[in-house]
Queue: 4 jobs
Job 1
Amino acid sequence: MTASPVLSLSGVSKRFGAVQALTDVDLEIRPGEVTALVGDNGAGKSTLVKTIAGVHPIDSGQISWKGDPVRINRPHDAQELGIATVYQDLALCDNLDVVANLYLGNEIRSRGVLDPVTMERRARDLLDTLSIRIPSVRIPVASLSGGQRQVVAIARALIGSPEVVILDEPTAALGVEQTAQVLDLVERLRERGLGVILISHNMADVQAVADRVAVLRLGRNNGVFPVATTSGEKIIAAITGAADNAVARRRRRTVPAPTTPEEADSTSQDSTPEEAS
């Protein structure tokens, strides 16, 4: 039985001046599933994620949390609901150690004084639970590899016990071993019952960990595909708009409209599925 969506977007639109960034976008995020959000540059992925994260309030449409309509006007609203976002720049402090980065802004205090012992213990427990391997929780983040920095940023997002985690290009610029480490962590987030939104340009990564792929093209939905039964070529075609090219448009424009039922039937038989749509 498919779980009910923890987060759903219906008819979401967003405009920046004369630029229509999103138009009537729908999206559903279910617990225990990884939904990959893919699209070409300028497709609207970053804008959509920022509307969910509260950076850009939507102009129209509806966002629902566990079936109830909500308004997300600022990042704090998203965090209170249980939405955590890990952006591509990670926003880690290189001069601070792992514990300090994990609890930055959420420090644990005892009688008004920082409690470093409790923070270190909980940091170790969290990293062990996620099977994250780093030399020590007390070394500066600057000394960690790219993959280790990425998993620390993801672990920090889990401090508040979110139910939805958004990962913006988590494997960008990582090596093979580091990418594998991050993808392993994404799978562990799914096993913990979290709804994961994964933004990626790497189809191999998407097919390795995602359950569904939601494609955006020119700010609109262009299909949602189950990874298990969909070829990579079909997803790429949806991303690039291969079925909607200049030649197909020209043919549709130049073919005369049928004047009899017999001609209409013949035209529908000769057309391809892409042309018919």
Job 2
Amino acid sequence: MRQLQLLALISTLICLPFVKAQDPARPSPPPQNVPQASPSPTPTPLPPPTVSIDNYRATAGRIIGAALVSDRAYERLAYLTDHIGHRLSGSKSLERAIEWALAEMKRDGLDNVRGEKVMVPHWVRGEESLEMTAPRPMKLSMLGLGNSVGTPAEGITAEPVVVRNFAELDALGEKVRGKIVVYNVPFTGYGATVQYRGSGPSRAARYGAVAALVRSVTPVSLQSPHTGGLNYDQRQPKIPAAAISIEAAELLQRMHDRGDRMTLRLKMEAKFLPDAESANVIAELRGSEKPDEIVLVSGHFDSWDVGQGAHDDGGGCIIAWEAVRLLKELGLRPRRTIRVVLYTNEENGLRGGNAYRDAYRAELSKHIFAIESDSGTYRPEGLGLAATAPLQVRSNLREIAKLLSGIGADGIAPSGGGADIGPIMREGVPGASLDVEGSRYFDIHHTASDTLDKIDPRDLQLCVATMAVFAYTIADIPEPLKGPEGTGR
């Protein structure tokens, strides 16, 4: 009976078109940061595909069907999040996760399972608090920004100055000396807004500010601060920095605009300990004909020290891992090797991605393709291919994506990639991200709410299916993904 149900499901997936549902309660956000003054340039025509997918339709259906009747991915993500929890670099919980993954991958029968040593920064949050002391006592929701320095034990007490952008800060200049700069910058898109978290503290320190508070990089808040990393400018003093909730930022803005005299007290025990030993977790499905050629699938195993790191990026790691395990279980061994990498230290150092590039620099010419899953575990829409990828790669991926039209994951977005595969992409490896419908991702990104209950098990299964079909087909097609020498860009 189970086999008949599976066959019926596969038939439905292959033959029926996928219809994307629209959430009536949450309209799709408009495109962010798109210039409106001039029309978009005409895209360069793609060359015809040089790969054939005719021999992969049945196999793709088999992979999709197997993924959609398996609970293994969800069970493993549940263990990772509920039994191990969040996994900040240098923490015992991250090392427990690494040991667990290595043991489980060996139990899965994957090839060449190993942990490759990486020394990572060891930042510790410690106790922290933010309160208004005048004109009335009030605790404010906050999370220290990753890699921030701490305050003196007694904290920092100072008047806040609220600005909505860097231009307002620059206009005030030395008037912020001795004060706490508050960046109340509404979310207009991650790339545009996250700069205030990344460089805002040093920009404030340039003018003598004693601390910086950044409105959380999110469109939604229920008194929920969002942490994340900052990047100190070594030419400026290092000042403590924290994220505050939208509600706290708007409160301070209103009071500032009325001319109310305010005082804030910020306390942070944040500090760095000596670098700690960690590891990239690596396993393979060894290729049958060209084992030295690599198709890489990946996520990052570390997370921030709040919540459970379910969407960011426990789910991404499980997707990549389960895709390879599923192929192994189905007895599908492609011509080339599929390598799964669970990177360490993406959140506050990128040591794992850089270490992988350095360890395999001599072999990068044999890396055929790399996929990173780090945009949340939501319904997959295909891949986001880096804009720098050869045109022939884009054309061939569009052809391969047709194998996933039955589940609506057949798109090839115009841009993509990832932080951890970025170092090898800059060395010439074509790279892409798993593209998902992530309109709700930044609601919980880097918060205590990034927990397992936010994961839809069916979305997780669909992501596994998408990753597995792309990885297997790219690794098995006889033709080079880049096409014959000289084709494309």
Job 3
Amino acid sequence: MSKPTGSKSKRAQSVEGQLRRARVLVLHGPNLNLLGRREPEIYGSATLADIHASMEGRARAQGVQIESFQSNSEGELIDRVQSAATEGIEFIIINPGAYSHTSIAIPDALRGVAIPYIEVHISNIHAREPFRHHSHFSASAVGVVCGLGIQGYELALDAALARIDPI
């Protein structure tokens, strides 16, 4: 039996998928490199590697490539956001950590590249110290997830996957 005209073989589809896949960037701000040992009563015992592995499996199942980047430096986070615009990143998930409450420059960079993003916080910032109640990121985010532990990253990824074309 012959194949219908215009259909692609599985090999051709696989090669094409490797050439161009939708990409999601996950950014982690200051001190998140200490997850798993930093204040486990607030942040739990999962590490960044655990979070990335969970998200990577979910994304791959949808044909999406996920990349993670962590920095304690505001300038490095800004540089990574700006690079994302020329790399074909279609969505950003960001846990800005303490920069949520202090940085104007990172949200400016996010607005400047016009890549949609979701803000994630492991803890409920509204139930913590008063200075943590305001985030400079929230107003231009597609959504905000806070207080749900590392499950917040998975929920943000599900929302991002629903908004992008996995190609």
Job 4
Amino acid sequence: MSGTIAIGATAAPAQPVLVLGIGNLLWADEGFGVRAVELLHQRFELPDNVSVVDGGTQGLYLLAAVCAARRVLVLDAIDYRLAPGTLRVLRDQEVPVWSDAAVSLHQATFQELLSLARLRDRFPDSITLIGVQPDVLDDLGGSLSPLVRARLDEAVALAVAELGSWGITAIARTEPPAEPLSPGALALQAYESGRPSAAEACRIGDARFLNTAPCAESG
């Protein structure tokens, strides 16, 4: 008999996957993407090759993370010009890489980020965008509107299903994650319980400049 020992082929490492929530928590429905990935992180454990990221308003600072991933799943508030609260899923070629009109609601649009990834020849193999049509954007310091908040569970379910179509299994947590995705002070419950009312904070605007009904008088 030969002394040769058969060695099984080494399994290829799993491709890196990025789940990215973008938006501004301090600007009402603009915070939808971040709240959605927070909820996903709270409810499900994902494999080590999947990074769940609160991208906030980092804009082009997210370029390295996007370029490093082969599959990207994005959750965001998107101006589809549809009824407020409408959820829509775009995949691959449906996701606009560049257009004259901004789709995302941020200063450095997500299209610009994707365009730079393509220029670097590091565009993801697959990209999916789960977006919600915002209802309220001018409530500075406010939280999600009821219409948009009601779609969080569905958005998380869509994200889990999309990951499943990529062969990634999300396992329901039996205990809270060891580390929160966002700073404790910005977690939804803490943020809701600590923020002042619209009247106290004049979140919609300062009546002295807008010449509208005054906020609650102090003193």
